[in-house]
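Weekly sync notes, structure subgroup
Attendees: PM, AL, DS (notes)

Item 1: joint prediction request from the bench team. They want all two components modeled as one assembly rather than separately. Inputs as received:
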Amino acid sequence: MGMNLLGVDVSTLDVPAFLAGARQVFPLLALLWLLPLLRRCRPGWLLLGVVAANAWVFGVTNYPLQRLYALGPSHDRIGNLGLCQVVAAGNNPLHTTQVGQLHFEPFWGMLVALVSGFDPDRVLALYPFFSLVMVVAFPLALFFGLKAEGTAHGPSPWERALIAGFATLLSSSALDYLGTYRVPWAKMFLLKPNHALGLLLFPIFLALFARIRSWRGRLAAGLLLHLLGWVFVLHMAYVCVGLLCFAGLSFWARRDEASREARDVLAVIGINVAVVSPYLIMLLWGYPFLVRSGNYALPVFSLHLLEPTLRVGGVFWLGVWGAWTLYTRGDRTSRLFLGQVLGGYLVWVGYLGLGALGLARERDEIYFWVRILTAACAAVGAWDLTTRAARWLGREAWPPAWRAAAVAALALPFALPSWWDPARMDAYFAGSLPPLPVSLESAGEFLRHHSEPRAVLAGDPQLVRYAAALAGRRGLVVAGMNASRDWRQRLALQQELLSSERPRTVSQAAASYGVSYLLVGPAFLAKHSPLTLADLDRKRHLRRLHLAGDPEGDFVAIYRVGFP
Amino acid sequence: MMPGPGELLGIPAAIPDVPATVATLRFGLWLVAALWAVLVAGRGRRAWLLGGLLFVWAATGYWVLALGRPYGLLVDPDITRSVAAATVAAETGRDQGVLAGEADRPQLAPVPARVRRLAVLWGPSLLPLVVVPGLGVLVYAIWGCRSRAPLAALLWLAFSTGDLDALRGVGLLPSVFSHPWPAAALLPWVALVLAEARWGRATSVWRTALGVLLVVGPGFLVPAAATPRGVSEALLALALDPGPWLPLALWGLSRAGDGAALRLTIGGGLLTLGTGLALPIDPVAAHALYRLGLLLAAAEPVARILLLAGEALASRWPVSWPRIEASRLGAVALLLTVVPSSFLAWWHPRDLDPVAAESQRPIAMPLQEAMDWIRRETPRTSVFIASANFAPAVAALGGRQVLRAPGLLESANDARRRAVEEKVLRGAQTERALARFGVSHLFIAPGDFTEYGLATPEAVEAFPSFQLRYRNHEGYRVYEISR
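Output from the run, pasted for the record:
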């Protein structure tokens, strides 16, 4: 039986009909949801609708899946789950799935391990729901985080509810799936809840920063910014650039409080850098971000500048209007948010320089960041234009609830759930529909329950990667991980494990990395042809413990490494 | 040789090189939109239309030039079938079908075969250059609301298709290639509706109802296959896909109630609903009529909004700069901002139409050479045996009838034809079999007819009735079969 994340058998589900039905029903439900706004004037109702719409998209996408979303089709997903699982199994959160290698996003693994009670079995059951938590929590964080204190000029609750809606549901557009960076919502929330956690902290940071009154406030904001660095260092960097833009804006507008705001910015960034510096050093040491590559080059004359601007269409222009509206407001929260938007675009432009050097890594991350902030700004623009339109039409008396309902209704056709068709738009969806191959499931279960949590696996790098994701065991050479400084020794050890006839020597070499298991599959054997399972069975330093699948077809064989 | 559309104009096949120049196109369209804005900022009314035509031609012309072959030829079965039928008829001079021994019932039957061939061969490729601009010209020239006609033409030219209707498969622009004849029919269809609404005297409800019938009626005359889309899909196409144009149009209709806009909106809407009920109505043409109606109806509210925006801009306009009317200033702002972000400016046919993507590849030169040889060197009455992969090319490019064309055309007596094919290719005594269908030649390529035991094309030379007449470096061969 093919179970989905809720334990429901969906193996016979008519997926195209299910998806079409969801698309057809949503607009009706959304309009019904908006109706009470005409009578019940509470922004919370609109916010709840935004949260429900996000949960709806999550449900529509995940309900038909018989495995964890993108586990298999996306290497990122396998790698990320592995990074959490090895921590849940009791390994060092500062290390990746590849033994001895430093990890540059340790917070997420630690969080997932904690929430799951350091139980890899429970991680597998809970992991799909982290995306749901993120899509629900991010709009809430935006709503509460952008609340301006002590001023009448900041975003109203209605406006903040719209910001939450636009940032999540209108930051992706219907034809994004054809573009370079695909659909931001799916990539950010479904595929990378670890990065979405950074988004979640962002409005909280803004709220904290906007309320700075003393050194205590600066310290708190700096520490939160440093936490953001541990969660996802790029988001921390974007926020820092945004803070500098905020300070620059204050000076440019010749505001009285410009000096104080500059001091706040420098102090918060300074505290952040001071606290996070050990991590930054670790990152500089462990991550090859200065290695040039053709993959990270941008042609001089490319669409780069148009991607988050003209290509985004109406939402971009509404965002421009929203940015102007924020600029003309007097409150600190609005300027702070505007600074972040400008900072995002500044980083985006800066990528042209990085691209020229062949260093434009992680372009998708800044793209998603800019899209989400632009959509949030578009909500501000839409709210302002609706207010002006009401005045123009002589409808000043319209309550804010009506105006908010009008904006939401007008935005409905462009909102993600109205057009989201994962079968067509999500490259990982189709591959996530069938369950994982039995051989992988079985090998994962065997390792989870019959190997030591700190065991290190050698063998097929692809299988080792799955083993990390399914069982939380680290590997000697893991597919998708960066090459370590001792790469040659590792490869040599792999080769020795397969070919050596000197069991004592090879066991000693394996022990230097803690290698105690060897994983073998048909692709690995083919790569080392004419090696066969029978050849491996004859090695005195290998003892076959488990064989899942068909030895003549697709299988996973697990050997114990060691000479008694 | 079968050139791409660009080569007809003397432009080398490698131009435009899409991956290398698509960024230039996007920036270029921004500049064209700016030029359009400059034209609109001037005094003339025609400039509104002229700038729009330039914009549409730049956006669509690039993709027409990017086609490496006539759209859909040897890619889309329907188009290939039409071209094959017209080519065979043009070459043989009779209304012979693609399959030997079968008469043809061609599209555009009264038209001479050579003209028909040109139409079916180049029509789908070139119609994007004609349909959207042509409808813009009609709106500008005929629409009864003369004061708003330039703005309505602008709106149509810039926003004839939106992201959402394109995604649903009913957007006009991405579908002109694949729905050429319903799209072409829109020109007289819309002209008739606009003219009737403008010059028709009475303005009663009955008159409007008759006008709606004038929109709906031709919808059943334009050839279209019924597509079971479902009523809910049709309703979503009507309610969601137009985005802001629907509320703007409702506002406009409630205030001005222009006759043509009302007729097109209601008629196009009914036709779209009809597609949901699986009636034989072309969904693209139906939706185009509906959208045109919405845009015409929205012209009045949009004009008011642009005036408001223009006044706001004019109040901040530097004194030293040339004065521009507020209404035009609003339109300039629209052209500089929203238009470069429109679907038209970002349209990439490859994304939504796999046939367009495939049509960007030229037909392989060895195949073209072989087909040219067939057309030049074999009698017009020849009948070929060719595999399913190459029978369409023999008919569409070589202009010769074929015994069988699986995948393209299915004959009622295909089993008998297959038996003849097998007999001939197994080297059996074939005189009677050949005579029945007039089979005279074999076109064979490596890998063809292995099911009959032919390991290589030259294996047929073991049979005395096959004489090699042509071969090229790709391994394509033509044999004459003697009886």
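Discussion: Chain B has a mean pLDDT of 91.
Action: AL to compare against the crosslinking data before next sync.
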